[in-house]
Write a structure and sequence with these properties.
Elements (H helix, E strand, L loop, with lengths): L20 H27 L4 H22 L4
Length: 77
């Protein structure tokens, strides 16, 4: 009967199959920048390089994040 059906919060078909890929890609990029930037900051504090290692760490983190996005999610077809 129609009164026995429970409503679906995501609609009748549910979320699309690849709905979370954008958030996953964004989290790879942000976490890569944050982790490697923090490691660079620690190297700056240790060697007193004036922020050079922090910048290098952030750039390496961005490159690593882009690499992970391409490696794990594939190239667009």
């Amino acid at each position: 009967m129609t009164g026995d059906q429970t409503p679906h919060p995501d609609g009748p078909g549910g979320p699309p199959p690849n709905a979370g890929q954008g958030w996953t890609a964004l989290s790879y990029l942000i976490s890569g920048m944050a982790v490697w930037g923090f490691i660079g900051w620690l190297v700056d504090q240790w060697l007193d390089t004036g922020g050079i290692a922090t910048g290098v760490g952030v750039v390496l983190g961005m490159a690593g994040g882009i690499y992970l996005v391409i490696r794990r999610m594939g190239t667009p077809s």
